[in-house]
Write a structure and sequence with these properties.
The complex is a heterodimer. Chain A contains 15 helices and six strands. Chain A is mainly α. In chain A, the strands form three sheets. A two-stranded antiparallel ribbon of chain A has the order 1-2. A two-stranded antiparallel ribbon of chain A has the order 3-6. In chain A, a hairpin with a 3-residue loop joins strand 1 and strand 2. By secondary structure, chain B is mostly helical. The relative contact order of chain B is 0.19. Classes of the chains: A mainly alpha, B mainly alpha.
Amino acid sequence: MITKETLPIAPKVGTSGVLPNVLRNSRRALWPLATLVLILVADSLISQNFFGIRVVNDPLYGNHFYGNIIDILKNAAPVILLATGMSLVIATRGIDLSVGAVMAICGAVAAVLVGKGDVAPMPVPLIILISIGVGALCGLWNGFLVAFLDIQPIVATLILMVAGRGMAQMITQATIATFVNEGLAFLGVGYVFSLPVSIFISIGVLILVYVLVRRTAIGLMIESVGANDKASYYVGINARFIKLFVYVISGICAGIAGLIVAANIRGADANNAGLYLELDAILAVVIGGAALSGGRFYLGLSAIGVLIIQSMNTGILISGIQPEFNLIVKAVVVLIILLIQSEIFRAFIGRRFRRTS
Amino acid sequence: MKSRFLTLAATLSVFIGLYLIGWLRFPGFGSTVVLANVLYDNAFLGITAVGMTFVIISGGIDLSVGSVIAFTGVFCALLIQNTGLHPLIVFAMALVLGTLFGATMGTMIHYLKIPPFIITLAGLFLARGSTFLLTTQSVGVNHPFYQQIYDISIIFPDGGRVSFLAMIFLAVLAAGIFVAHFTDFGRNVYALGGNENAALLLGVPVARTTIGVYALSGLLAALAGVVYSLYTSSGYPLATVGVELDAIAAVVIGGTLLTGGVGYVAGTLIGIMILGVIQTYITFDGSLNSWWTRIVIGVLLFVFIGLQKLLTSKTFVDSLSRVFRLRRRDPVQAVQP
């Protein structure tokens, strides 16, 4: 009797569950995507041939593509890395303020290890691994404070944010540690398939993390811990380990981003590498539609958020507006995006329109 | 003793300890010159930190203060140099602007339910951007009033010179302590930071308090900008980048919990003094590099947060009171040992 009653219901859920899910997801993607398209259209109105891509013959790296879109992607690459880690951290109701400082530390480690000469004292892949390992260690420290000492994430990561730049300066001995090693510089200035290698690195990491969390149960656990860590614990999720995990991922992402930024200028600048990039990354995650109160993350949309910020920056730069306007335009656009995404504001506007009509 | 006072006592003993270490190594450390200079050099930071204390006690955060200081400095310098307005009128305008800026952020935080972190981050960009709009150059101020202000000071017998700027800081601090502990607004701020929903149910005017807290922070940031303008006799658009972090660090070291609801304005003074003493020690030593300042501040942050965790954890407080035979018989007696 009971099985007869319940059986017909089960397939119904299965068949109808897929389509609304896709619809719901696409509706969430609508605002960030629309914003990106809008900003790109605005960019193309500002500058002639904005989407034009031409092939440049570079004596050092051979033929490669060149254009505004390539530029946006290349500049967005480090922030996409940061935003990937930050999405996971924010999903657990955390925040990682230290990523900019971690970038500086990892860049400094790589630059110092590779040395001043043409030939590095140890294999470059090893240096890269060590630097990323240092990033993971930084993440481990943050995660330890948050997960095991129960320190509020904003404070826990503030410690490394303040001390990290001091450490980076200590590593570079307060100089900008420059290097000429081509192997390390390749990460920042090299080209693969005529496209900047940093684009492939960041998208590769994004896909890797996506597969890691969305093709396993980890993603679900992360969201569960963010929604309610006590309940998750009682359900049998190791909430502490999940928190530790997301900060380590964030540290690794920041480490790779630090390598790219250092490689791009062939030097580690302890004071300026990644300065304020943590704020850009957090902003990108929020623009991508995730709430700072945790419980949800959308890796793809966070990357779209980064592209929104970057196409805005590039647009302002090529528009010929004085660079002094840069920050103010950014602030205003960010505020507008936040307002549009605020449900309360949308409801308020909706009420207004109904009242007048 | 209440655990909240314990944190404050720990902060105070760290300050005294650091100061004694400095004194043992450098006899000059004991002079009032050092203390007076710490107050003078950190007056703008201290004023900002008092505002930040209120914001943090209310459970929020204000990242925009560094940019507001820079904006005010440039705004004052430009108006004083290019118009005939008296500096005091310009200062008043700057304070009004800062208050309005903070109140706007508070309004958006309360009514749009966007996290303070994000709104004040946009505020950081906006204020810094507006500063670049005004000028990208450093603007010097040559006004006799600035010299007059500089000449006002109390001089101790051994040479310590408490400048007018330090006096402004101390006055703001006293006012902050008064507002926090003896006014309705102060009580509401604590209630809001303790639990916003409970505060709302108890009849705390949440909207007014939230807006008021950010307006106060904006006002004090603008005042800090005025003090910074008097301190440097100039306005520089790239000045005070990252001061918000120093202010937050001073507040946390001063024993205020970033979760909100707990903290003392007086603790912030000690937090500022600790930062100042570290800087002075590094200057006196001469062989230490500047990066040690940041590392030591980071370590101190860690130590204090760990200490707060320990002191606010129930098991620790319970075992402590067992050791001191303060086992709770009933709540009233437990407070009075």
